[in-house]
Design brief:
The complex is a heterodimer.
Chain A: E1 2-5, H1 6-20, E2 24-28, H2 44-52, E3 53-55, H3 60-72, E4 76-81, H4 91-98, H5 101-104, E5 114-119, H6 132-136, E6 142-144, H7 149-161, E7 166-171, H8 172-177, E8 179-182, E9 195-198, E10 203-207, H9 210-224, E11 229-233, E12 236-238, H10 242-252, E13 255-262, H11 267-279, E14 288-292, H12 301-307, H13 311-323
Parallel strand pairs in A: 2-3, 2-4, 4-5, 5-7, 6-7, 10-11, 10-13, 13-14
Antiparallel strand pairs in A: 1-8, 6-12, 9-11
Helix pairs in contact in A: 1-7, 3-4, 9-13, 10-11
Chain B: H1 17-40, H2 51-58, E1 66-68, H3 75-80, H4 85-92, H5 125-140, E2 146-151, H6 158-169, E3 174-180, E4 183-184, E5 187-188, H7 189-192, H8 201-204, E6 209-213, H9 217-232, E7 238-243, H10 261-268, H11 272-282, H12 288-311
Parallel strand pairs in B: 1-2, 2-3, 3-7, 6-7
Antiparallel strand pairs in B: 4-5
The chains are: A alpha/beta, B alpha/beta.
Bound molecules: thiamine diphosphate and magnesium ion.
Magnesium ion binds near residues 152, 153 and 183 of chain B.
């Protein structure tokens, strides 16, 4: 057992695969001697050298294209886009190439790549855009967002081994803010499974990334008032584990979905629609969504704090779900 | 024109003394203003040492031209267009008095200033927008021009290549200035650029490309002036690579341990400001006393701006403007919203 931060656990996951599989390599900006943005690849250059840990020019589209091509010839690249805000610069490669190649070639080609990127409001306060739902919309991409160090490591391993393109979202607030004991047996988590982080009887709260921790905090507050909240960590946005959510909702008969991305068109919209289809007659109250308001993310701290959904927004939403 | 970082290239010797003095003062303002922002905001981007490129590129443009400054050292362009210095400092601090009212921490001013702002962090896309301003000028058949600067690392973005090709095909009135400070965060140019001189890329787009000593503000400015004249007369774009060095960290609190101290020291000795001072004092255009009073004037202006900005409240919640995402259809379109103010160094 070792007590690891989220960032250290991510590095552990990559290190494990780099050690055991020479096909695995990492490319990105400032991932070498600087140790990665926010320490996201610390120690890897020292152990694996510049053949495996490859510094790139600021050429995101070429980086993702090159990852796809090297996967086509049997490699297992991890390509790092420093921040989620830069994903639009390589969108064609991800959405049209990586997502389509396997299907369009009738299975002749596997695109075993991981695109890792940092998102979310955090101590860094830079480039925090949360575009994850765009990728969940596109068939052929797997989309994961861990919320704990153990998941960070084991999902990274799973993402690297998966024969499909996996878009891996790392929330910046978790990076150095969350630590836990992580066991000594790195294993591939199974992609596409949600996790129940707290069992409860009255209401299901589904959330992602840093928002999971806010949901757990809200659950403790409400427990005092006698409201027993079940917290589901989505973990995977694609495939979406509707079964786990639906069976929770069948028990609680209420659902709140919360994420940091814009509420309009966010993954919460898909979840509430799918749950409404699956559990319409089990629901005691309309689903409630929590997400960012529909304007661009402002930069100054007070404006940003008002923009990013917080524990109070969650408390309000859960109480609303409990009111009917 | 290809004499990077010689000790005084002699280029720009034909510049009028008033222009040479203006360039010096522009560098002083850029240094003082950006350093103040770095002191107040550890996430600001130090431009120390790169002022020769910044001032050389944007000084002396016409009022109706457009500027698209690199994100490192953007405020001189705004000051040249009459921005209130305290509002610029406020902007860097996310204060309510900033031009963007806290929405963008970076660099935006009224449209009337004619400056391509930074409203997101994705490098390279502003080059396309700047090229579009030049398209507008070409389209209207005017002789207005755009000057656009960006980092060496940014020239590896596809957007750079697409924009330069387009500008050349359409002979757009734009001057591209690469503020080549040799680094992209921790990566030295030699790790990410297979060529010594970025200016050679110009030949691939069929436009002139030249390399100048970025720490010689007179050399930079005379190259830009010639390229601007070329653009104005309809002959199309030019790529100017101005070679300098990032004396500070990537951001103000970046210790920058990935660099060699002896190289840094050598570049400190080539600081563009003392270089210009010594040329102007030697030529007799300025006395040391003149130089001191120029510093005094600039420092006083910046100190006053900092005092005002610091006293200003943080960005206000009502400025979040949730209902201002779209322009009001009933107001029609305005390309020149906002006031402009008295230009600094007018
Ligand atoms: C598309 C994109 N990729 C990566 C980044 C992260 N980033 C911010 S500044 C920077 C270095 C830019 O180098 P350069 O263009 O030389 O400008 P300099 O910082 O040296 O002034 C990088 C990689 C970004 N902002 N945008
Ligand atoms: Mg640079």
């Amino acid at each position: 057992m070792a007590r690891l931060s989220f960032a250290e656990a991510l590095v552990e996951g990559m290190r494990h695969e780099l050690r055991t599989d020479d096909r695995v390599f990492l490319m990105g900006q400032d991932i070498g001697k600087m140790g990665g943005v926010m320490g996201g690849s610390r120690g890897l250059i020292e152990e694996f050298g510049p053949r495996r840990i490859r510094e790139t020019p600021i050429s995101e589209s070429a980086m993702v294209g090159a990852a796809i091509g090297s996967a086509m010839v049997g490699k297992r690249p991890i390509v790092e886009i420093s921040f989620g805000e830069f994903l639009p610069t390589c969108m064609s490669q991800i959405v049209l190439q990586a997502a389509n190649l396997h299907y369009m070639t009738a299975g002749a080609i596997d695109v075993s790549i991981v695109v890792r990127t940092r998102i979310g409001d955090g101590p860094y306060r830079g480039h925090p855009q949360c575009y994850e739902s765009w990728f969940a919309h596109v068939p052929g991409l797997k989309v994961v967002m861990p919320s704990t160090p153990t998941d960070a490591r084991n999902l990274m391993i799973a993402a690297i081994r998966d024969p499909n393109p996996v878009i891996f979202f790392e929330h910046m607030w978790l990076y150095h803010g969350v630590r836990e004991e992580v066991d000594n047996s790195p294993t591939a988590a199974s992609l596409g499974k949600a996790a129940i982080r707290r069992a409860g009887r009255h209401v299901t709260v589904v959330s992602t990334g840093w928002m999971v921790h806010k949901a757990l905090e809200a659950a403790e507050t409400l427990a005092v008032e006698g409201i027993d909240v079940e917290v589901v960590d989505l973990v995977s946005l694609a495939p979406l584990d509707i079964d786990t959510i639906a069976s929770s909702v069948r028990r609680t008969s209420r659902i709140v979905v919360a994420h940091e991305a814009w509420k309009v068109g966010g993954i919460g919209a898909e979840i509430t629609a799918a749950i409404t289809e699956a559990c319409f007659f089990d629901l005691e109250a309309p689903p409630v969504r929590v997400g960012a308001p529909h304007h661009p993310l402002p930069m100054a701290k007070p404006l940003r704090d008002a923009f990013v959904p917080d524990v109070n927004d969650l408390l309000r939403a859960i109480r609303q779900a409990m009111a009917t | 024109m290809s004499r990077p970082n010689g000790p005084g290239t002699g280029e720009g010797a034909d510049l009028d003394p008033s222009v040479r003095i203006g360039l010096l003062k522009a560098m002083m303002l850029s240094r003082t203003l950006e350093s103040a922002c770095c002191e107040l905001n550890p996430r600001w981007f130090p431009a120390e040492g790169e002022e020769g490129v910044i001032a050389g590129a944007f000084f002396g443009l016409r009022d109706d031209d457009t500027m698209a400054p690199h994100y490192r050292g953007p405020f001189l362009a705004y000051a040249l267009r009459g921005a209130d210095l305290s509002r610029l400092v406020g902007q860097a601090l996310g204060k309510a008095n900033g031009y963007a009212r806290g929405r963008a921490l970076g660099f935006t001013g009224p449209a009337a200033m004619g400056i391509v702002p930074w409203v997101a962090g994705d490098l390279g896309t502003t080059i396309g927008v700047a090229t579009g301003c030049a398209l507008g000028f070409s389209y209207e058949g005017s002789d207005r021009v755009t000057v656009c600067s960006f980092g060496d690392g940014t020239t590896n973005r596809g957007d750079f290549h697409e924009a330069l090709n387009l500008a050349s095909v359409w002979k757009l009135p734009i001057v591209y200035v690469c503020q080549h400070n040799q680094y992209s965060i921790s990566l030295h140019a030699s790790e990410v650029l297979p060529i010594e001189q970025i200016s050679v890329r110009a030949s691939g787009y069929g436009m002139p490309g030249l390399t100048v000593d970025g720490n010689d503000v007179f050399a930079v400015h005379s190259a830009v002036r010639d390229a601007v004249a070329r653009a104005r007369s309809g002959e199309g774009p030019t790529l100017i690579e101005a070679r300098t060095y990032r004396l500070g960290g990537h951001w103000a609190s970046d210790p920058g341990g990935y660099r060699l101290p002896e190289v840094q020291d050598a570049w400190r000795d080539k600081d563009p400001i003392p270089r210009a001072v010594s040329e102007l004092v030697t030529s007799g255009d300025l006395t040391q006393h003149d130089v001191d009073s120029m510093w005094d004037e600039v420092r006083q202006a910046v100190d006053a701006a900092v005092t005002v900005a610091k006293a200003c409240p943080d960005a206000r919640l009502e400025d979040i403007g949730a209902n201002e995402v779209f322009a009001d259809v009933s107001e029609g379109m305005s390309a020149l919203r906002g006031e402009r103010g008295e230009p600094w160094l007018a």
